[in-house]
Structure formats: structure tokens, C-alpha cells
Amino acid sequence: MQMISAVTQVGQGITCLQAANPSPMTASGTNTYLVQGPTGAVVIDPGPDLDDHLHAILAACAGQQLEAILVTHAHLDHSALAPRLAARTGAPVLGFGRVTEGRSARMQALAEAGLTDGGEGLDHGFVPDIRIEGGQILCFGGLQLEVLATPGHLSGHLSFATDATVFTGDHVMGWSTSLISPPEGDMATYMASLRSLQGRHWHRFLPGHGPEISAPAVRLRELIAHREAREAAVLTALRNGPASPKTLTAKIYTQTPPALLAAAERNILAHLIDLHDRNQVITRTPLGPQTLFELI
Predict the structure, then answer these.
(1) Is residue 294 in some structural domain?
(2) Which 3-state string (H, E, C) describes the chain?
(3) Residues spanned by the domain of 87
(4) Is this model's pTM higher than 0.90 or not?
(5) In total, how many domains does the chain have?
(6) Which of 34, 182, 187, 233 is buried most, with the most CB atoms less than 10 Å from its CB?
């Protein structure tokens, strides 16, 4: 029987319900947040399609009208439960759009040329009732939430801010770095999104997996430095000659558990595509997982 692993109050009017879907990619499970206002509530990331998780959310909402279901991005571990929760509560589902919406022209061209995702659980059936984008202010149940555009992990990834707290989905996490898997993931936009968050003062981040981040500015610096170090490692490895993403992954991710190497390889591909677009590496064949990359 599926069980909810944790229901925790993480702030005034904010409850975190952790789904029972632990894995190497989800830590101890997906965090669903119930944010309660004076006259109603919203759910952020309803999570995976699990009966017990649905029942836990409904129980947490008891006695208060659920006015909206907000989805940071269309991965099955975040969005799959949205249709059933909407059907039970009548609340509309809000998100950026279908899973492929928001791609940069570069990623769209790569997709049309045959580049496919790495099988990371895209929710191809996700269609929001209401399409939202960065810069909007949502008002539900006496709450105000600002929509922040944070593409990169997925092209349509959103975060939601209330006061100085940000619900960051998979964009910023404390337990791990984010997977960037082209063509849905885009390293250039991911780095830009991290830097855009640096432009404001935040009190804490509540991520889609793992514990809250109490020092957002520190974590943002760490993530940017980590990606810059990975990029430098890729360029250093290419000094030995042309190499594929798989070969580079084996050289760079020497301490990574085998279960995570496929994801690491997609991250390396994302770095290589970004470096290619910035004219730091070249290829002799179309870009893809088996392409040989070399320094200019």
C-alpha cells in the first residue's frame, strides 16, 4: 500500500506533503505544497498520480476551498496528479503550457532534427486549464503569488513567490543539482534563470524535492559555480581530442553512482550544446548523444 512519507508544517499557512515516490532522481519524494490563505488555498505541484497522495492532499484541504492547482513543470512526478485533483475539487490547473512549449529556437531546431529526451518522465498529457507565465500576479483565497519564469530544467519551468519565499520546483534544490536534458532542458536558459533569481533578495526556497533552502543566495552561488566548474572540466577533457558525451561523462563523473550516469550524460550534452552555440567547441556531424565534440 502506498503511504505518504511526511506531512509537515513549513511555515504559517504552508504545509508540505511529501509523496511516497523516492528514487535517485526524486530524493525521498516529491514535495507538494498546500498554501492556505484567509478565504481559500492553492496547491503547488500536486505530484505523482498516487491514490494515497491524492487522499492526503484532500485531507489537508478539509474545511477550506481549493481555488487553484499550480504546476511548476510537466514532469510526471510533479504534474501527473493534477487532473484527478482538479476533478475532485473543481480547482483549475495553472501552468506554462504543454511540456514542449517555451523551447528556444535552438532547442526546437534540435528536436525537429531528431534529438529526443533522455526518458526522464515527461508528462506529455499535461494541459493546463489556464496558461500562465513569468511576471503575472495570481490572486486566490486572499493570497498573492508572483509567477517567476525559471526555464532551464524544462523550457516552461515556473517558480512561485509569496513575500520572500519561493517555491522553486526542480530549478533550485538543496540535496542535488538539477537535470538539464535537451531538447526540453536548456543549459543557457538554466544559467540565465539562476542569475535572474540573484537579482532579488529571498528569505528561503521551498524546492520540489528535499528540505527547504534557508540561504538562497549561497545556494545560487554554489549552483552557478558548480556548472561553471563542469563546463571547465568539459573543455579540459577535450584538450585530449574529440570525445562524445558518454566518454566525457566517464572522465568527469568518476564518483557518480551508476544509476545516475545516464542523467549525468544528459547534463554533459547540455553543456556541449551550450558551448557549441558559444563557438567554443565544434562538431563534424549533427548534434546528438553520439556526436564527437572537439575544441575549436
Answers:
(1) no
(2) CCCCCEEEEEECCEEEEECCCCECCCECCEEEEEEECCCCEEEECCCCCCHHHHHHHHHHHCCCCEEEEECCCCEHHHHCCHHHHHHHHCCCEEECCCCCCCCCHHHHHHHHCCCCCCCCCECCCCCCCEECCCCCEEEECCEEEEEEECCCCCCCCEEEEECCEEEEECCCCCCCCCCCCCCCCCHHHHHHHHHHHCCCCCCEEEECECCCECCHHHHHHHHHHHHHHHHHHHHHHHHHCCECHHHHHHHHCCCCCHHHHHHHHHHHHHHHHHHHHCCCEEECCCCCCCCCEEEC
(3) 6-230
(4) yes
(5) 1
(6) 182
